[in-house]
Design brief:
Radius of gyration: 37 Å
CATH topology of the largest domain: Porin
Order of helices and strands: HHEHEEEEEEEEEEE
Distance between the termini: 87 Å
Low-confidence stretches: 31-35
Strand content: over 45%
Shape: elongated
Number of domains: 2
CATH architecture of the largest domain: Beta Barrel
Strand order of the largest sheet: 1-2-3-4-5-8-9-12
Oligomer: single chain
Amino acid sequence: MAQRTLHSSLKLAISLLLLFCMVMPAVAQQQQGYLPHVPKRDQKKKEKKEGEEEIPLYNGVYVGLDIYGLGARVLGSDFLSSEISVGVNLKNRFIPTIEAGLGTTDTWSETGTNYKSTSPFFKIGVDYNTMAKKKDKSSFLYVGVRYAFSPITYDIYSLALKDPIYGGEISNPSFEDYIWGGTVPYNHPGQKATVQWFEFLVGVNVKIYRNFHMGWAVRMKYRIAESISEYGNPWMVPGFGKYNKNTLGVTYSLIYKIPSK
């Protein structure tokens, strides 16, 4: 009997001790104003999230003027080109961009052919800031893609030559009629064509003073579609370059950033 009573008392004491061990920490936390225990892993994630800088969706607008084509003309190029670009900075990561420009040329070939054109071009695409996670937000390296097209109007005609024996003017012998023989006159003003292409580019945007930036980009251009006059291909495609299948281009721009605030 005494042995049974001792066993019951010991069991009751152990139960009370376990209950005391469970209740007292909770009471102590409540008295000291503690919150329930947060696992260290979740706490670190919470602290990291609170420490991160919140980047707004809209971070300003970049307005740029390409001066590379202007400089090339000054240095003797037969082609003058320039463009204006407008890009919107979203989350400091994506920059949707539109570009519009004008190209003009008036040049002679070695065979006495004149090619003359003044036409616009248009581009639309997006750039991706590869340095979005960097603390310095003033300068960045980006990659991008563009869809572009140019509706071209151009004139082609041959230079008249003097007849050294009989006088007067004759057709340029460079344009020989291989079917009927002899030479043919070549004068076709107001020809129209449309060329479309894709561009893949890599560039930098660097802050130089307050909201003023400068930037350059290397662009690989791939012609994808065209509608050409039957009287001759365009010698130069505004915004694209010489009429080749693929070409490499460079832009160098002065940029002003319109801040978000």
